[in-house]
Amino acid sequence: MTSGGIDPKLINDCVHCGFCLPTCPTYTLWGEEMDSPRGRIHLMKQHVEGTPVTPEMAGHFDACLGCMACVTACPSGVQYDRLIEQTRAEVERVHVREPRERAVREIVFSLFPYPRRLRLLRPGMGLAERMAPFLERVHPSLGAMAGLAPRVGRRQRIPRLVRARGPRRAVVGMLTGCVQGEFFPQVNAATARVLALEGCDVIIPPGQGCCGALSVHSGREEQARRLARRTVRTFTRAGVDTVVVNAAGCGSSMKEYGQLLGSEPGFRVLDLSEFLVELGPVADRHPLPVTVAYHDACHLAHAQGIRAQPRELLKAIPGLDLREVPESAICCGSAGTYNIFQPEAARDLGDRKAKSVASTGAELLVSANPGCTMQIAAAMRRGGARIRVAHTAEVLDASLRGVSL
C-alpha cells in the first residue's frame, strides 16, 4: 500500500473492457456504472486528476464490498484490491463524513479490533436479536450489528502450547483473532485440535490482538499498521516460521503485511486448509454422514486464490456429501464491516446468498470466515430457513475424533 494517494499507474492498467461487471455484487444489484469496478476506477482517475472527493463520489467507493471478484475476472491484471485500499485511505484523509456516520464508525473501530472490548458484549448477545428493531430506529448500522449477533457458546481457554499427537511433523503459530476468538471460540479450539492430530505443535501466543484486517480494508492506515506491527512482534517473539489462520479476511491481510509495513514479516502466513493440504493427512478420518454446502469466502477464494483446498479436505471425509452453492463467486454481503455500514445492500446480498444455500438442500453450511458465518446465518433466519453453520475446522475435528457435529 502506498501512503498519501492513489497510484495512477494502477489506474491506467484498466482498459474498461467490462469483464468485471457480472462478477461485481453492487453492479449485479443496481446496474449502475459508477457502482462497478471500472466505474469506480473512472472516479479514482478523476480524483487523481484534480476532482475533489464529493459525498457522492465517496458513496460509490463506500458501496464497494472489496470482495475482489473483479480481480479474479479481470483479463488485464488490474490490481483493484490495491486500488480500493488506497482509495479508501484517501477518502478517510480528505473526506469529512456527517457527524452520525462518523460516530458509528468510531464505535465500530473502537470495538471490533479489540478482543477484550468485544468480550464485554458476550453477556448481552442473547438479547441482541430482540433489541435490533429499537437500535435500527437509533441508527441502521446499530440495528444491523444487533441483527448479526450470533448465539455465543461458553468461552474456551486454549493453552499456549498444544502438543502434537504422535510424531511431531511441524511447529506452527495460530492466530486467535478478534471476532473469531470471542464469538466463535469453538472454531479456534477445533483448529488447534486438528493441527495437533495431524502432528503439529501449535503455539498460541497469549495477549494476541487484532491483525489489522478490518482497519486496512476500511482505509484506516495508521490503525492497521499499529495492529499489524503488534501482530508481527507477537509471532516473532513466539519463534515460529509459519502462522496458521482460520479466518479468511485475517489471512488475506496478513499475507499483505509486506505492502502495509514496507517489509515482509519473518514468517509465512497460511490459511488452515492451505496448510493442511500442503502438510498432507496422517490422522484417520471417521465417517460423517452429513450433507454440506461449502461457502467460498471472498477473501479466501478471490483474495488468496484458495478454492480447491477446503473442498479437498471435506471430500476426504467418508460419508460427507459436498454440494456446490449456486452463484458462489457473488459476495454474501458481509465483507468485513460492510454489513454494518451498508446494511441495505448487505441485506439484499445476504438474502440472495441464503436462497442459493437453501437451494442445495444441505443440512450444514460450511464457511471459513466468521463474518460470512454471521451474515448468512442471519439471512437464513430472516428467510425462515435456519441452517446449522460450521467452520471447516469443526467438520474436520469431528471426523478426526469420531464424534458427531
- Report the uncertain regions: none
Number of DSSP strands? 9
Look at the structure and give the mean pLDDT.
91
Order of the strands making up the biggest sheet: 1-3-2-4-5
Q: Taking Cα atoms only, what radius of gyration do you get, to the nearest Å?
A: 21 Å
Report the β-strand fraction as a percent range.
Answer: 5-15%
Approximate shape? globular
Structural notes for this entry:
The N and C termini lie far apart (41 Å). It contains 23 helices and nine strands. Helix 9 runs antiparallel to helix 10 (140-148) and helix 21 (343-359) crosses helix 22 (370-382). 51% of the residues lie in helices and 9% in strands. A five-stranded mixed beta sheet has the order 1-3-2-4-5. A four-stranded parallel beta sheet has the order 7-6-8-9.
SSE arrangement:
Elements: H1 8-12, H2 25-30, H3 37-48, H4 55-62, H5 69-73, H6 80-94, H7 99-109, H8 115-119, H9 125-138, H10 140-148, E1 161-162, E2 170-174, H11 179-183, H12 185-197, E3 200-203, H13 213-216, H14 221-238, E4 242-245, H15 248-254, H16 257-261, E5 268-271, H17 272-279, E6 291-294, H18 298-301, H19 308-315, E7 321-324, H20 338-341, H21 343-359, E8 364-367, H22 370-382, E9 388-391, H23 392-401
Parallel strand pairs: 2-3, 2-4, 4-5, 6-7, 6-8, 8-9
Antiparallel strand pairs: 1-3
Helix pairs in contact: 9-10, 12-23, 17-19, 21-22
